[in-house]
Amino acid sequence: MSDIAERVKKIVIDHLGVDADKVVEGASFIDDLGADSLDTVELVMAFEEEFGVEIPDDAADSILTVGDAVKFIEKAQA
Amino acid sequence: MFDLTGRKALVTGATGGLGEEIARMLHKQGAVVGLHGTRVEKLEALAAELGDRVKIFPANLSDRAEVKALGEKAEAELGGVDILVNNAGITKDGLFVRMSDEDWDSVLEVNLTAVFRLTRELTHPMMRRRHGRIINITSVVGVTGNPGQTNYCASKAGMIGFSKSLAQEIATRNVTVNCVAPGFIESAMTGKLNEKQKEAILGAIPMKRMGAGSDIAAAVLYLASDEAGYVTGQTIHVNGGMAMI
Question: Residue span of the signal peptide, if any (chain A)?
Fold first, then answer.
């Protein structure tokens, strides 16, 4: 796993209080990890803070899984 | 009951009569209190009088950058704001047909937009901590209206709608958002009224007297307390029966 993926995973675990083994690339924040709509907003804000990137609302709407988040951040930092 | 030991509160407009009473009450119940105001000397005097557990935060609420900075500073220096009391407010009264853009804008800016901006700064950390109390001081006239105060009443009614919406958004995070709506309260503002005006006002109040700042502070204290954890999106009217809503 890349460094970014590790950091994303840690944020998700901390924020949602879920088991580490559930936080896999294809895990959906809402369907698999029990997040509500506020959680997803908070996660996006946490990613922005951690990685110093800006995630616009329309991009945020397309970040549905752990893998989506990692991909977006990798792209934004490239 | 209503013990605030360990809680950190920020009260805006703490140099005004009402804000000062609110700050005193929260402090008395054990909270660390951040006093916001525009007059540094008055803030320092009140802080000195209260003694421990007090910090002052001078800021101009009509300056948007200062509002943001106030939120950041209070959050950092108080070590997390648990209780936010949006009390600061101004009036620029005048009959509607003669109301200037400036009088409209300045009242909405301080009474409503600053509330939005400051609350936005402090809400997210509250959500993270899964605890928070946001208490907005509105007014009976925000519900009943009052001639000569279209701007003020719009801002106070706006505060109520704002509070209800935000309350619904963040209820699952244990952050409550409520309003306290004072009626006529003895203050520097009402002290300026002449006898005839006073008589007319008292005639409309079943209790035949004006309220005291401490009456409002007590309602704020309740909403700030752990005991009020199941109360959100509400407006508590404290007005001697003047309007029963």
Answer: none
**ipTM of the predicted assembly exceeds 0.85:** no
CA–CA distance, A36 with A74 (Å, rounded to integer): 25
Q: Does the distance separating the beta carbons of B124 and A42 come in below 8 Å?
A: yes
pLDDT tens-place values along chain B, 245 residues long: 999 999 999 999 999 889 999 999 999 999 999 999 999 999 999 999 999 999 999 999 999 999 999 999 999 999 999 999 999 999 999 999 999 999 999 999 999 999 999 999 999 999 989 999 999 999 999 999 999 999 999 999 999 999 999 999 999 999 999 999 999 998 876 777 788 888 888 999 999 999 999 999 999 999 999 999 999 999 999 999 999 99
Which residue ranges make up each domain of chain A?
Answer: 1-77
Q: At residue B63, what are phi and psi to the nearest 5 degrees?
A: -105, 115
The 10 Å Cβ neighbour count of residue B12 is: 29
Instruction: Name the CATH code of domain A1-77 (choices 3.10.20.600, 1.10.1200.10, 3.30.565.10, 1.10.630.10).
Output: 1.10.1200.10
Q: Residue A45: its chain B contacts at CB < 8 A?
A: 124
Residue to test with chain B: of A38, A39, A40, A50, most B Cβ within 10 A = A38
Exposure of A19 by Cβ count < 10 A (0-12 exposed, 13-18 middle, 19+ buried)?
exposed
- Can B222 be counted among the known catalytic residues? no
Closest residue, chain B, to A37 (C-alpha): B169
Residue B91: CB atoms within 10 Å: 16
